[in-house]
Amino acid sequence: MTRALHILPALALLATALPATAADRSTPEQAKALVEEAVALLKAKGPDAAAAAFNDRKGSFVRQDLYVFVFDAATGRYVASGANPTLTGTDATDLADAEGKPVVQSMIAATKDRPSAFVEYVWLNRSINKVEHKHSFVVREGNYLVGSGYYTD
């Protein structure tokens, strides 16, 4: 029993050095809630103020491995990206995932006849620098696609 007690502090120290686990990942419910908050802000404050909030990497729309992204559904351009604000204004129409799936076109198609959808693709998880499966919850609000995604691998 004494030997086991000496191992516990070492295990606790080791645990702090391990990478994030599945328990640290965001859930579909958290992604959906973040998008709903983002849509509410977009409606209340308009696209310019909302985009500024979404692009703030230290703001309330970037949480753990979740961040808000917004595309203009008519042009396919980024309106905001909490992961990389420098993408704002760039054309994402032909943006494809690691397997060649057209991401933005899939999101536009998925929300063409309904207000929201989950879209699956393969994306770089920046928190662990690994390509993984990602599911994004996307809402069409006017001409905007507002989304956030969670990783499943």
TrEMBL record:
Q: So which residues are the signal peptide here?
A: 1-22
Q: Which Pfam families match?
A: sCache_2
- Translocase as a keyword of this entry, yes or no, is no
Its annotated compartments are: Cell membrane
Keywords of this protein's UniProt record, alphabetized?
Cell membrane, Membrane, Signal, Transmembrane, Transmembrane helix
Q: How does it sit in the membrane?
A: Multi-pass membrane protein
List each copy of the Single Cache domain by range. 20-105
In its UniProt entry, what is this protein called? Single Cache domain-containing protein
- State the organism named in the record: Azospirillum oleiclasticum
